């Protein structure tokens, strides 16, 4: 069954259709969450919260063709909410700053991800992930984050500066 | 840059079994909450359900457990209807949980309607409660013809507002 059909059926209350959708994007949900939280336990919490929010609100999705974008936005918001709540209680443990925990043990992050995880704030992570991992245009990123296009470009520029990477002209002047 | 990030992201290992369980748990939680919401819906008196059921009283959108409603003076029920005691008096037998559902629904509509629309909605809800209050004062168990006509008009408008709020969500 195609994705559009699954979304429409899920909106009618078809749980299996929803599970098909969430299964399809579970890796994206988990990996996105991991970039924000830096540890597996919190990333799993966010995955659960994402499933909860998405299933509860599936009827509010007006354009079923944007299901993936909508789902990733929920994931990012859930991650940011979790981090905010944690900040009220405790600081992120220093040992998590260089490593991401996996079920096989802790492994060092690859270079670029390490830069993203350690140097960027939540908004910057969102823009970089949406741009380079989810291949969104600036217009799409602006819609997801509810900010002007110019702001998304500034955030990306600042992020790349922090990561000591140069932004290509194509990145700025893309359509 | 794009390829590099994508490659590195895809190298991150997925705890497949745990992730699957947590996603299922999230959906299960959502299902349970939906069932709970239905249970907590504000139940209108039978005559009201049969004839002039109110969108506001019936609660078609959003309810939670009883802890939501506060005795605080700034609760929406207090602001609109004077006090929750007043509502309880006009709708005897209704529980605190039911009123929590009403409070939550008012908050939901306030959030998703314009200020003007919400003001109109609250005025209509107030008028509706006033009719019920009048019936109670006169020991009547059902509205008269004129009241029923007006209650039907109010009901139609309230339902339209609730639907609009749901669309705007």
In total, how many domains does the architecture of chain A comprise? Answer: 2
Total number of strands of chain B: 0
Mean pLDDT of chain B: 72
Instruction: Please outline the major beta sheet of chain B.
Output: none
Q: What best-fitting shape of chain B do the alpha-carbon axes yield?
A: elongated
First-last Cα distance of chain B: 37 Å
Shape descriptor of chain A reads: globular
Helix content of chain A: 55-70%
Termini separation of chain A comes to 32 Å
Got a strand count of chain A?
2
Strand/helix succession of chain B = HHHHHHHHH
Percent of residues in β-strands of chain A: under 5%
CATH superfamily membership of the largest domain in chain A, which one? RNA polymerase sigma factor, region 2, helix turn helix motif
Number of domains of chain B: 1
How many alpha or pi helices of chain A? 10
Number of helical elements of chain B: 9
Q: Hey, roughly how much beta strand do the residues of chain B contain?
A: under 5%
For this entry, give a set of tags.
heterodimer, A: 175 residues, mainly alpha, Rna Polymerase Sigma Factor, Chain: A, Arc Repressor Mutant, subunit A, 2 domains, two-stranded antiparallel ribbon, 10 helices, 69% helix, 5% strand, globular, B: 169 residues, 9 helices, 72% helix, 0% strand
Characterization of this structure:
- The complex is a heterodimer of chains A (175) and B (169).
- Chain A is mostly helical and 175 residues long.
- Chain A folds into two domains: 1-108, RNA polymerase sigma factor, region 2, helix turn helix motif (Rna Polymerase Sigma Factor, Chain: A), CATH 1.10.1740; 110-175, Winged helix-like DNA-binding domain superfamily/Winged helix DNA-binding domain (Arc Repressor Mutant, subunit A), CATH 1.10.10.
- Chain A has helices at residues 3-11, 15-24, 26-37, 40-57, 67-89, 111-119, 122-133, 138-145, 149-162, 169-173, and strands at residues 99-102, 105-108.
- Chain A has a two-stranded antiparallel sheet with strand order 1-2.
- In chain A, strand 1 and strand 2 (105-108) form a beta hairpin.
- In chain A, helix 3 (26-37) crosses helix 4 (40-57), helix 3 (26-37) runs parallel beside helix 5 and helix 8 (138-145) packs across helix 9 (149-162).
- Chain A is globular and about 45 Å long.
- In chain A, 37% of the residues are buried.
- Mean pLDDT of chain A is 83; it is low at 90-99 and 101-107.
- Chain B contains nine helices and no strands.
- Classes of the chains: A mainly alpha (175), B mainly alpha (169).
- Chain A binds chain B through residues 15, 18-19, 22-23, 26-27, 29-31, 34-35, 40, 44-45, 47-53, 55-57, 60, 100, 102-104, 107, 109-113, 116, 128-129, 131-133, 135, 165, 168, and chain B through 1-2, 4-6, 8-15, 18-20, 22-27, 29-31, 33-34, 169.
């Amino acid at each position: 069954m195609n994705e559009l059909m699954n979304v429409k059926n899920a909106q009618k209350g078809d749980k299996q259709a929803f599970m098909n959708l969430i299964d399809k994007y579970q890796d994206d949900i988990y990996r996105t969450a991991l970039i924000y939280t830096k540890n597996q336990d919190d990333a799993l919490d966010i995955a659960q919260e994402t499933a909860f929010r998405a299933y509860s609100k599936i009827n509010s999705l007006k354009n079923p063709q944007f299901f993936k974008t909508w789902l990733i936005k929920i994931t990012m918001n859930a991650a940011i909410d979790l981090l905010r709540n944690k900040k009220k209680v405790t600081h992120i443990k220093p040992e998590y700053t260089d490593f991401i925990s996996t079920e096989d043990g802790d492994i060092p992050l690859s270079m670029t991800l390490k830069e993203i995880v350690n140097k960027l704030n939540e908004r910057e992570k969102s823009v970089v992930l949406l741009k380079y991992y989810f291949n969104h245009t600036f217009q799409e990123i602006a819609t997801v984050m509810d900010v002007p296009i110019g702001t998304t470009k500034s955030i990306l520029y600042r992020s790349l500066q922090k990561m000591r990477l140069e932004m290509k002209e194509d990145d700025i002047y893309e359509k | 840059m794009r390829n590099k990030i994508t490659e590195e992201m895809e190298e991150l290992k997925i705890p497949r079994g745990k992730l699957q369980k947590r996603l299922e748990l999230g959906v299960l939680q959502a299902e349970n909450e939906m069932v709970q919401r239905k249970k907590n819906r504000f139940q209108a008196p039978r005559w009201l359900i049969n004839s002039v059921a109110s969108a506001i009283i019936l609660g078609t959108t959003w309810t939670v457990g009883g802890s939501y409603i506060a005795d605080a003076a700034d609760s929406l029920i207090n602001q609109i209807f004077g006090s929750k005691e007043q509502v309880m008096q006009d709708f005897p037998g209704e529980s605190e949980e039911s009123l929590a559902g009403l409070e939550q629904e008012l908050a939901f509509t306030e959030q998703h309607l314009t200020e003007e629309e919400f003001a109109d909605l609250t005025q209509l809800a107030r008028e509706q409660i006033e009719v019920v209050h009048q019936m109670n004062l006169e020991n009547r168990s059902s509205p008269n013809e004129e009241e029923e006509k007006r209650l039907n008009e109010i009901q139609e408008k309230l339902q339209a507002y609730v639907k609009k709020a749901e669309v705007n969500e």
